[in-house]
């Protein structure tokens, strides 16, 4: 297969693979009420169909990325897609809520295998200075899935019930798995394969499980022994993980990524931006439906400018990234996101549709540019041999951020009733922190970190990048 065809097929796999997972999450939200009634499940049990998936996927993303680095991103992606599709079909046939929860956890495991690979395979196929547009196309597709998922899911649930929703992804997942197996990963130099570092993976998983579970249950339970111990366990496990990684001969996260200020700034910016976006969306839903009295469809139409900007703004963001560099692009995007949060915080019963639409337009314009530029920075900073781990770190940030944002919003809305001000003020402050973090990103003239050959960058990686440019 010639390099051009390989790149096109890799891009198609990356885009469709990301869409399959994103679409599944959006249609599940629509299907949950009907699923609960049909299976005679409690609200807590239905919540675990989301929580179980989130805990499984968040705890395994980085380790799954390392599997891709060692055994090949296309192969790991294929396994993830087959498992994800099979688990999705199993949910559609599940006899009770216990099976649904168990299969959602399985989906999380296989989703964790596939998602870092969608970025790792791009890094392996494209040189660092040409990653912006492929990442942008992937982001546009995710935005399209986020916008279309509720509409498709709603139509299927209304006409056929909740079970057909879970068969949506089966055929695309199996097709992408088959196509992935036709694309061979670039050969690795002898001795360049990194170890799996199982102790490091276990420590990181404990830290992430404790953190995610605390964020999920805190709004409902408040301060309890479990919610107080959760952050303590997460902090202790994270500290042990960092200490282990610094002394490991073959660490889970290469030293060039673990200690990189640039990667840390990009991940911090992604966490803050995604927390602000999803927290604001959560609060805004209450405003649109409880304050303005809109139905779900009318509310979705008010939020549509955000989805449009996610789809159309991603390619524009890639062009801006190339022209102005990560620091200016991401910093400006965080300011747009901040303006969107502040504008929505000033809405009341008398607010007009243009004012509401402008707020969501700013949210979408800011977030899509942050996602494209910060993701490109993380992936570029990794050598080709560590691209899966970099993808896992980016995906972990994109799971932790929304969970944190919704937890903050839920807690503050619960304390203040339907008043949006306190929650959005805190989310605006979080956005400002992300804007400050963006100032630590490289400028337009700075050389890509990956080309400086950080720790873990083998001669085989450099040779592979030269071949990729040809």
TrEMBL record:
Q: Which domain of life is it from?
A: Bacteria
Predominant location: membrane
Q: Which organism is it from?
A: Streptomyces mirabilis
Q: Keyword annotations for this protein?
A: Antibiotic resistance, Membrane, Transmembrane, Transmembrane helix
Q: Where is the signal peptide?
A: none
Where do transmembrane segments lie in this chain?
12-31, 43-64, 76-95, 135-158, 164-183, 195-216, 222-242, 263-283, 303-321, 333-349, 355-379, 400-420
Q: How does it sit in the membrane?
A: Multi-pass membrane protein
Transport among keywords: no
What is the name listed in the Swiss-Prot or TrEMBL entry for this protein?
Answer: MFS transporter
Q: Where is the Major facilitator superfamily (MFS) profile domain?
A: 10-446
């Amino acid at each position: 297969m010639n390099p051009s065809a390989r790149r096109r097929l890799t891009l198609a796999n990356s885009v469709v693979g990301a869409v399959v997972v994103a679409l599944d999450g959006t249609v599940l939200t629509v299907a949950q009420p009907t699923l609960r009634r049909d299976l005679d499940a409690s609200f807590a049990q239905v919540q675990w169909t989301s929580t179980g998936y989130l805990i499984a996927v968040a705890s395994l993303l980085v380790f799954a990325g390392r599997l891709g680095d060692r055994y090949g991103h296309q192969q790991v992606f294929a396994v993830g897609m087959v498992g994800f599709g099979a688990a999705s079909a199993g949910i559609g046939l599940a006899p009770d809520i216990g099976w649904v929860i168990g299969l959602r956890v399985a989906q999380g495991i296989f989703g964790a295998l596939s998602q870092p690979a969608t970025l790792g395979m791009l890094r392996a196929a494209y040189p660092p200075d040409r990653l912006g547009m492929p990442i942008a196309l992937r982001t546009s597709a995710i935005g399209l899935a986020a916008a279309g998922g509720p509409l498709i899911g709603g139509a299927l649930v209304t006409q056929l019930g909740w079970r057909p929703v879970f068969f949506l992804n089966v055929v695309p997942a199996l097709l992408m798995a088959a196509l992935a197996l036709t694309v061979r990963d670039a050969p690795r130099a002898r001795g360049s394969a990194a170890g799996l570092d199982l102790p490091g993976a276990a420590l990181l998983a404990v830290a992430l499980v404790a953190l995610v579970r605390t964020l999920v249950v805190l709004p409902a339970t408040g301060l309890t022994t479990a919610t107080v111990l959760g952050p303590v366990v997460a902090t202790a496990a994270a500290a042990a993980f960092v200490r282990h990684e610094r002394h490991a001969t073959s660490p889970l996260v290469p030293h060039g990524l673990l200690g990189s200020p640039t990667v840390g700034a990009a991940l911090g910016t992604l966490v803050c931006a995604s927390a602000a976006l999803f927290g604001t969306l959560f609060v805004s839903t209450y405003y649109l439906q409880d304050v303005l009295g809109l139905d779900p469809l009318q509310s979705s139409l008010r939020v549509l400018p955000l989805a449009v900007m996610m789809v159309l703004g991603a390619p524009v963001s890639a062009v801006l990234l190339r022209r102005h560099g990560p620091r200016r692009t991401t910093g400006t995007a965080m300011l747009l996101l901040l303006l969107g949060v502040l504008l929505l915080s000033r809405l009341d019963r008398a607010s007009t549709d243009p004012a509401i639409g402008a707020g969501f337009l700013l949210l979408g314009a800011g977030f899509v540019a942050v996602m494209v530029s910060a993701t490109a920075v993380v992936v570029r900073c990794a050598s080709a041999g560590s691209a899966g781990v970099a993808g896992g770190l980016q995906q972990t940030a994109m799971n932790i951020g929304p969970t944190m944002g919704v937890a903050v919003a839920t807690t503050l809305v619960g304390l203040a009733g339907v008043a949006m001000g306190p929650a959005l003020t805190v989310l605006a402050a979080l956005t400002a922190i992300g804007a400050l973090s963006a100032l630590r990103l490289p400028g337009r003239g700075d050389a890509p970190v990956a080309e400086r050959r950080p720790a873990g960058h083998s001669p085989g990686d450099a040779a592979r990048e030269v071949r990729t440019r040809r």
